[in-house]
Each structure stands twice: as structure tokens, then as C-alpha cells.
Amino acid sequence: MRRLTFAAASATVLALSPMAFAQQADHEGLAATVERMARIGFAHSPSFSPDGQKIAFVSDLSGTPQVWVVPTQGGWPTLITSGEDPVNNVQWSPKGDWLAVAIAPGGGMNSQIYLVRPDSTGLRRLTLGGKDNNGLGRWTEDGTRFAVASNRRAADSVDGYLVNPDNGQLQLVAKNEGIGGITNLSNDNRRAVVFRMRSRTDNDLYLLDLSTDQEALLTPHEGPGEFVGGISPDGKTVYLSSNKDRDRLAFARIRLAENGEPGAIEIVAERPDAELGSFEINHSGTTAALLWNVGGRAEWHSSIY
């Protein structure tokens, strides 16, 4: 755990004026406050088991961020990984047999992807383990593959891969010139949404047909534009946040024709006092949970679309 330590300039203090004494007290109070803040633990990246009875998550309970599993009914969690390097993400397989884990050697940028059993056995690395950078994405609905973003092909490009957990093979499905990756796949594994970034305030989403490798641009626009989203479980709609031709991000959708041809961006939910921070679609594709940023305050809203 990182701690911020204040060191005295001299080991001996000869005399303190009232003002100097007050300054030292303030200094010591600040040091104590920072020390207490450094002890605050955290937990993130929650992922349910397929039966909904357990949750895998990342926490620094043991000092270094690792994977833990806890029953949904509560109780003390079980430590799953126990390495020296911090874990930054975990995703439970829909089959229930594996946890996909992203581990950052030395806490650096070159995260590597591992698999481990939910009982903490069978830990193995799937990526190269060198200076390549890798990001962990979502599992397919059937649990046969999961997405990884990696620059293993070219140092200046982050491509989209699908990983087979049985043999560990990575299949390159989306080449990118710059930063990109696969956001998710339809339940039948026929279609995927690919994210590609041109700059911090400008990116696009593409629809990828995995059977033909054909791509279709989902978010044509001029000037800056921010789009984040994925395909619905039935593969017929892309849900996304969009600020195309508007100041604030809103919740939107793109209907897909039978042949995959995308329609226009349709705004589904918007607020004059807020912009969309993030959203999640349930497994059946019937309900969206929207997180609105209202002047720096987060508000959840759930609706059927």
C-alpha cells in the first residue's frame, strides 16, 4: 500500500516559537490525516457467479489488491489470488468454471491476463508476460470465450482478441490503428461491437460480423464525438451513450436491420440537468440501469426500453 510520509528536515529542534509550534501542530495533524487516509481499504470490479450465490471482487484487504470471493448473503471473503503484483480486474465465467483476472506486474501498465479456478487453484497466464499491455473484457454469454484488448501485435496499436479458456489461444478479430477493443458480443456470438479511439474526445463504434469479418460504422459524425456502448443480447440493437450533435451525453440506441445494416442514432433518454455517466443492460435485454451525472452527484435510474 502506498503511504505518503513526511520527514523532518532536522533530527533536533532547539527552540519553537508559538507560531512555529502551531505550524508544527498543523503539520502533524495533516500527517495523521494522510496516514489515516492511506489505511482506507477499497473494493471494486464485482462479478457474480452464474448461480448468483457468490461475488468475486478485487480488494486490498491483504495489503495488495487481490481477488476475493464472498457469499452474496454476506460473511468474510475467501482469498483467491495471493501474489505480490496487484490485480486490477476480475470477471467470472458464465459457466462458473473460471475467473479471468488482469494482473499488473509491479503495478505498472503492462497488465497480463490470467485464469484461475474459483477455489484458487489452476492459476495460469494466457498473455505473453513481457512489455505488452493487455486489458480484460467481457465473457461471451455461453462462457466459451472472453474479450481481451492487447498491443501484442504492434506496440502503438491495441487490438481486439477473443480468448478460448480451454486452450488459451487468442484469436485476433479486430485490428486497430491506435486504441481500441471489443466491448461485447451478441448472445449467439455472431455480432460484436468494436470501440476505436482517435483522441480523448473523439471515438467511434463499429459493428463486426464475426462470420464474415465485415465491419459497419455505427457512429458517423463530424468533429468531436464520444460513444460508449454494446450490442443487445438478441443482436438486433446497439445501446450507447452519445453526444452527437448535442452538448450532454444521452442514452441512445441504434436499430440493426436483419443484414446488420445500422440505422440512425436515436436518443432514448436525456436530461437537461445531467449527462449520462454509464449504463448497464440486463441479461434479457429488457431493462437499462442508467447512471446520471447531476452536477457531480450520481443518480441511478432504471427503465424498460
Would you kindly provide a written description of the structure presented here, covering whatever features stand out?
This protein is mainly β and 305 residues long. The chain has a domain of 163 residues: 6 Propeller (Neuraminidase). 7% of the residues lie in helices and 46% in strands. The chain is built from one helix and 23 strands. The chain has a four-stranded antiparallel beta sheet with strand order 1-2-3-4, with no helix packed on it. A hairpin with a 5-residue loop joins strand 17 and strand 18. It is globular, with a radius of gyration of 23 Å. 30% of the residues are buried.
Helix and strand topology:
Blueprint: H1 18-38, E1 43-48, E2 54-59, E3 66-71, E4 78-79, E5 87-92, E6 99-103, E7 112-116, E8 124-125, E9 134-139, E10 146-154, E11 157-163, E12 170-174, E13 180-185, E14 191-199, E15 202-209, E16 214-217, E17 227-231, E18 237-242, E19 250-256, E20 262-269, E21 275-281, E22 287-294, E23 297-304
Antiparallel strand pairs: 1-2, 2-3, 3-4, 5-6, 6-7, 7-8, 9-10, 10-11, 11-12, 13-14, 14-15, 15-16, 17-18, 18-19, 19-20, 21-22, 22-23
